Amino acid sequence: MNFSSKLLENAVNEISQLPGIGKRSALRLALHLLKQPKEQTAYLTSALQNLRNDIKHCTNCHNISDVEICEICAKPNRNSEVICVVEDIRDVMAIENTAQFKGLYHVLGGKISPMEGIGPHNLTINSLVNKVKSGKVAEIIFALSSTMEGDTTNFYIYKQIENFDVKISTIARGISVGDEIEYADEITLGRSILNRIPFENSLKNN
Q1: Strand 56-57 relative to strand 64-65: parallel, antiparallel, unpaired?
Q2: Domains along the chain?
Q3: Residue 64 contacts residue 57 (beta carbons within 8 Å)
Q4: In whole angstroms, what is the distance from residue 164 CA to residue 16 CA?
């Protein structure tokens, strides 16, 4: 791709680093920004800089937040004894949209994936185990995607906490094998949360 401007080329190269965006899509976005008022580009730049510089992770559940304790964890009407384990903020948003879950979340920050170099130490698993050890948790719900990486992560965590006095369940398989939680429709996902099953039962089915 030949550019008449080095400035344009640099912008396209940077935009194309984003997931799912190739050079042609990056070029369209860059040209679109050039057509907008300078103020619009300034707003975008400011929003991205604020996101990168000021974003926090909730000290309780590790969800992305603007403050030390996220809005969900701060709500007094949430059941702190029930914790739903998810991969990232997209899954939190998907489950919250169902309005069927009233507990808290624990965001792992990914899934165990040796192929991608992601091991248990790269995730917030130790923090979750410590919550269980505290004795203040009654139930852990696994809500990771039904992929090999998701199942591996579920099983690893299960082995870390199976000897503690805590109920361990997983969302019902209304979610198809291989599906990501964030893409499930709200009704199916809501029913999967409500109709969750003991995790040991899912092991027997595999």
Answers
A1: antiparallel
A2: 6-54 (1.10.8.420), 68-205 (3.40.1360.10)
A3: yes
A4: 47
Q: What is the pTM of this model?
A: 0.81
> Would you say residue 30 has pLDDT above 60?
yes
CA dihedral angle for residue 51, residue 54, residue 60, residue 62, rounded to 10 degrees: 30
pLDDT at 80: 96
CA-wise closest residue to 179 among 203, 151, 200: 151
Q: Would you state the pLDDT for residue 178? A: 41
Position 76 pLDDT exceeds 80: yes
Task: Name the phi and psi angles at 170, rounded to 5.
Answer: -135, 150
Asked whether 196 and 141 are in contact (CB, 8 A), the reply is yes
Confidence of residue 188 (pLDDT cuts 50, 70, 90): low
Q: What does each C-alpha distance from 168 to 31, 130, 137, 144, 205 come to in angstroms?
A: 51, 15, 10, 13, 16
- For 49, 118, 127, the CA distances from 114, given in Å and listed in that order, are 32, 6, 21
| CA 7 vs CA 27, 72, 137, 189: distances in Å | 12, 43, 54, 45
What is the distance between the alpha carbons of residues 39 and 33, in angstroms, rounded to a whole number?
A: 11
> How far apart, in whole angstroms, are the C-alpha atoms of residue 110 and residue 139?
21
Can you give the pLDDT at residue 187? 61
